[in-house]
Amino acid sequence: MSGLVEGFVFPNEHHIHWSLMIVTYPYITGIIAGAFIVSSLYHVFHVKALKPVSRFALVFALAFGFCCTWPLLNHLGRPERCFNIMLTPHPTSAMAGFGFIYSAYMVVLLLEILFLYRGVFAKLLPQTTGFKATLYRLLTFGNQDLSPATLQFDHKVTSWLALIGIPMACILHGYVGFIFGSVKAVEWWSTPLMPIIFLLSACVSGISGIILGYLFVHWVKGRAVDEECLSSLVKYLWGFLIIDVVFELLEVGVHAYLRKESWHHLHELLFGPLYVSFWVMQVFIFSFIPLVVLGVLSLANVRGKALQYLSAISSIMLLIQVYCMRWNVVVGGQMMSKSGRGFVFYHPEFFEKEGILPTIIILIAPIIILFVLSKIFPLWLGTEEVKTYKK
Amino acid sequence: MNKGRRKFLGYLLKGAAGSLYWVLPMPVKVPLQLPGILRDEKYDPEAHEYVFLVDINRCIGCGSCCVADKREYQVPDGQYRTWVERYLIAEGGEVYVDSPKGALKGYPEPREIDKPIRDAFFVPKLCNMCEEPSCVQVCPVGATFKTDDGFVLIDYKRCIGCSYCVQACPYGVRFIHKERRTADKCTWCYHRVRRGLLPACVNACPTGARKFGDLRDENSEVAQILKSSEPLGVLKPDMGTKPRLKYLHLRQEVI
Amino acid sequence: MSEKPNRTHAKRIVVGLVVLVVLAATVRTFLVPKDLGNHGSLFYKFYRKGAIDDELARMPRHLTNASCESCHTWEYELQVNSKHRSLSCEFCHGPWADHVNSEGKVIGYLPNPKGGEAIRALCLRCHNRAIHARPKNPEVIKTVFYPDHLKKQNVKETHSCDQCHLVHAPLKYIKQADEFFAGLEKEKEGARE
């Protein structure tokens, strides 16, 4: 935990307090926010091409939403007191809002899913038995009415919830950026650009996750991939990535051009201990290569296997890019001593409490949860198709 | 020393704990080091303005303060409520800073630098007790706060150990206590001050480099120094935290 | 589509949510301490009043030099009139609370390493000129180079500080010796005359 030191750091700084857990937490909220925005593009902005993934994106967000608090609870010194944050929220603390914003967002997300799926469940009920039938009955809240008026009502509610959900998803994640951006003691964090950068990279990681999930499931099940849908996902991903990279570099550029005292420390950080993970990994390999690949895919309107493979590779690279970005922000800020005269290095161990293994578990858990949820919520079935499915 | 007397002292020490607000229990009666505090029958926090002064010219880097502090609070190894830094400034202006073990063992060896040294001095560090503490502002559960007499304290029973305050403190004085698993930091020995005793580090300092007192007490040493023309400074003034901890003869190299 | 939609599920959900919020609010009132809130400033004084009492319940573990006087009068008198009067007894001998609470088991101790090494470690913490400590003004503290000081005083380098200096009153024996030799000189001069 307490790592190597270069130069002089204050004696209490030998320990990096915000560990891999706090790198993972904004990563997960980012994926949630990004996935939600994909589904809202269909539900609110009526981007018809995204229809095939609109439901998957919501359940995907829900699965990650369940795991969002895990890294936090594992990190807290006193996890048994976690509800204090909702019992006695300090009005001036950026962090105090987390409990409320997170639970409100989860409620909106759950409600949207319930209203979206009520009709589906009602239609599926006659052909299901046992525990699953009971569950469906519960999830329809006892209303299995399939009249067009009721379905229209469900649709309307879903649209409204999706509309409310957009600002909430933005707040949930942009606010995580604010938690960092509002720490004046850490020069690498305190910038008003932080919430924007967090939000944009959230969209990037969310869309990447959706592309990867969509392709993976369709490859495994041997179903045909909807290329129109994939192509528009790629275009959105490219667009968000452009703005994301511009803002990430703008932040560094402003620091570098202002050349205030903080830059002299930041310069040493960015061209010293953070050189590989920031410039080489985050910027050159995992941003620029996908930027070019996605650009070609979008502009040349590539289709077929090339589109599938290249978009899958870009998505994996971008998921790594966003994780690098979270690492560089969270750990990078703490590596810089507040004395301005040294750095602390952080090398998480595999088995420690906040180490690599717990991180892997926390990142794999949502995928398992998603698999379980897919048994309950038909991810790829539209309400309309149910009839043909029944035969 | 006879046994009866020893027993009596032990009895006083053990039986005295309690949370009486005005009459604070003391292990034994000793002449008070801060006489002003019991001026009135009731303690009025608004009537005091405590200031901590560190005279860099007088610090000899012995580390007595750090030892006293560690023992007063039984601070875990590797964590520091207070520490002393050694500054060496070379002829060319290069600054060399170190603080091995937070100066718990003092500075037994000179630091070897192959350049001529222009100046060398020691800088004790502790909680700055800011007027506008950023650590308090960010605490999500209200577990750290500023008292009416200006002390920034921690509510160990409500702290969740999120370490946001650790990140927010510009001076690096906060840490997550290894055993308690909550935030912890220097309190300027609030429990001693309210009993009329000096903070443990001030009491232990052999050269008077650490000074503590009430500005409202005209005769206190700190009040006299603040009225004089001695050069005073605070750390990182651009953070806008307005520290109550002031440094006498502070050099600009000190961060 | 003049048909009215069936909204029972929506109504049930809304009722459920309201019940949940009311329940949470009720539980909250039981769990939040009564003395927690804004005590003057939302920014800096939002806290539980009892936390101050908790902090005050902490007992001082160090007291003052005066607290040692009642039992250790002889040492106290020595120290209070010497150059070492500004030193805290507890720095070398350990905190008052450890001493009194142990009911005689620990009778004041010297920190490790013990014996001659401890004396050297303790004395050199302050009197080591090699570490460039300010102040250079000997009024505040006299510093020496070690072991040059021993050579200068024509004693063996293995000598520990307390062989010449009484730790509680460092110059007491030195002064006594000086006076003694000055007296001898006088006597000699007297005898010569």
Automatic annotation (TrEMBL), chain A:
Keywords: Cell membrane, Membrane, Transmembrane, Transmembrane helix. It holds the Pfam family NrfD. One of its GO terms (cellular component) is plasma membrane. It is a multi-pass membrane protein. The chain crosses the membrane at residues 20-44, 56-73, 93-117, 160-181, 193-217, 237-258, 278-297, 309-329, 356-381. Its main location: membrane. It is found in: Cell membrane. Belongs to the NrfD family. This is Tetrathionate reductase subunit C. It comes from Thermosulfurimonas dismutans. The lineage of its organism: Bacteria, Pseudomonadati, Thermodesulfobacteriota, Thermodesulfobacteria, Thermodesulfobacteriales.
From TrEMBL, chain B:
Residues 118-149, 150-179 form the 4Fe-4S ferredoxin-type domain. CDD domains: PsrB. Keywords: 4Fe-4S, Iron, Iron-sulfur, Metal-binding. Signal peptide: none annotated. GO terms for molecular function: 4 iron, 4 sulfur cluster binding; metal ion binding. It comes from the Bacteria. InterPro entries: 4Fe4S_Fe-S-bd, 4Fe4S_Fe_S_CS, ET_IronSulfur_Cluster-Binding. Pfam families: Fer4_11. Gene3D superfamilies: 3.30.70.20. This is Tetrathionate reductase subunit B. It comes from Thermosulfurimonas dismutans.
TrEMBL record, chain C:
Gene3D superfamilies: 1.10.287.3080. InterPro entries: Multihaem_cyt_sf. This is Cytochrome c family protein, multiheme. It comes from Thermosulfurimonas dismutans.
